[in-house]
Specification:
The protein is α/β, with parallel strands linked by helices. Helices cover 46% and strands 15% of the residues. Bound molecules: cytidine-5'-monophosphate. Cytidine-5'-monophosphate (C5P) binds next to strand 8 and helix 10.
């Protein structure tokens, strides 16, 4: 299977820093503090509703890689057209929920726009959900099987990659091969509290398990020295890459 054109080539490129702050001013400060230290900046819903979309465009125009974590899910026509417009924004990653129809509509939007530089990511099952949550939402678990089915659907829809818990990566890599990238949140550098994340791994463990990109938020944003915290994550990734060739 061909290797994904979105596969990272260095430890730094693998680090996705989640700018989970309420204002663009705070996000700008974090970007300034971590300049040159992280591969990708992730802009989520909180910031999107406070000027984050314009901010994302500006950062991309400066040549930074941006992950727009918008988790789209709607009727096909709306998804296709939304993705067409995202494809004009200079983003590197954008998320949609990993429903087969949603992913196919997203891929169609990307094809219509003809932008090879945007990686569509399917969010399998949110890492905040447990079996009971999934059941309450009308699904029949176990979670691992739902995640696996959605990974297959992402592959079949020709998505660029998936988002899943780092603890699920080992099971999913054989399904996805090297064609899709795997992006994993729930990363905690050694010595950091897990907080509200249920299934966590260290950066080194996540890379050893096969994650391509690691999403790290609070361990960097709430550190006394965000640049040093980012460097510590990269050093941990580097250690793992020496054992597992990139
Ligand atoms: O602060 P922390 O490192 O836990 O941030 C993780 C980031 O990854 C947050 O932006 C969160 O929204 C995102 N995320 C997640 N679990 C998912 C998908 C995204 O934690 N399944």
């Amino acid at each position: 299977m061909p290797k994904s054109r979105f596969a990272p080539t260095s430890a730094r490129e693998r680090l996705v820093f989640a700018l989970d702050v309420p204002t663009v001013r705070e996000a700008e400060a974090l970007v300034k503090q971590t300049d040159g230290k992280v591969g990708v900046y992730k802009i989520g819903m909180e910031l999107q509703f406070a000027g984050g979309l314009e901010f994302a465009r500006d950062l991309a125009a400066e040549g930074r890689k941006i992950f727009l974590d918008v988790k789209l899910h709607d009727i096909d026509n709306t998804i296709t057209k939304a993705v067409r417009n995202v494809a004009k924004m200079g983003m590197t990653f954008v998320t949609v929920h990993a429903y087969p129809k949603t992913m196919r509509a997203a891929v169609e939007g990307l094809a219509q726009e003809g932008n090879p530089d945007l990686c569509l990511l399917g969010v399998t099952v949110l890492t905040s959900m447990d079996e009971a949550d999934l059941c309450a939402a009308g699904y029949r678990g176990p979670i691992a099987e739902v995640v696996e089915a959605r990974a297959r659907d992402a592959r079949d829809a020709h998505m660029g990659g998936i988002v899943c818990a780092a603890t699920e990566t080992r099971r999913l890599r054989p399904i996805l091969g090297d064609e899709l990238v795997i992006v994993t949140p729930g990363i905690r550098p050694p010595g950091n509290a897990a907080g509200d994340q249920r299934r966590v791994m260290t950066p080194a463990e996540a890379v050893q398990a096969g994650s391509d990109y690691l999403v790290v938020g609070r361990p960097i944003s709430q550190a006394a020295d965000p640049a040093a915290a980012a460097e510590a994550v990269i050093a941990d990734i580097d250690g793992a890459l020496e054992a597992v060739p990139a």
